Amino acid sequence: MSDATRTCAVCRRALDRDDALRIVLGPNGEPVVDFRRKLPGRGANVCWSRSCMEGVRERGSLARSMRAKVALPEGDWPLGDARRMVRRRQAELAGLAMRAGDLKSGGNVVDRLVKKGWPTALVLSSDAGETVAGDLEKQARGRELDLFRSLLGSEELGKALGRTGPRSVLALGSGPLARILTDELKRGSALM
Ligand SMILES: [Zn+2]
Prior knowledge:
Layout: E1 5-7, E2 14-16, E3 20-25, E4 31-33, E5 43-47, H1 50-55, H2 61-66, H3 79-99, E6 103-105, H4 107-116, E7 121-124, H5 130-143, E8 146-149, H6 154-160, E9 169-172, H7 176-189
Parallel strand pairs: 7-8
Antiparallel strand pairs: 1-2, 3-4, 3-5, 6-9, 7-9
Helix pairs in contact: 3-6, 3-7
The structure holds zinc ion.
């Protein structure tokens, strides 16, 4: 196998290195997620998807892939770790994108910008209600824009943007920070 391809420990599909979640075995047999892909030691790779991350907890797939005894951490590991990491990234990048003028928030503002053709993508908070979501879906469809659900709730988005109140609707521009945030939104969607 070349260095650039990996096999998912759960579904056995071939993976691109950058699409995979890498897990390495710590010194006491406890597996840890290696987000930076830099930790030494025996490793396994899993698809960046909710189903394969959940699948890690079943049928001893990790032990088989690592050819070692593996003591799985409690709870929803590794999915929970991956979600926390993406949430952090989404919050951080939303703040940076806003300061760069690459992200705007709030229903009325976004509405105006969509009419002007400014956004490259639209974003809903995880807790946006049906009415708000339906409205934004319609706008996205009309302009053929991507629409994402963030893993962050409206309070968390407001905080990430340095606002005093919640934010449940965002518009992304075409700058580099918006593009990186879009990648993290896609990675988040795969974990829903
Ligand atoms: Zn898989």
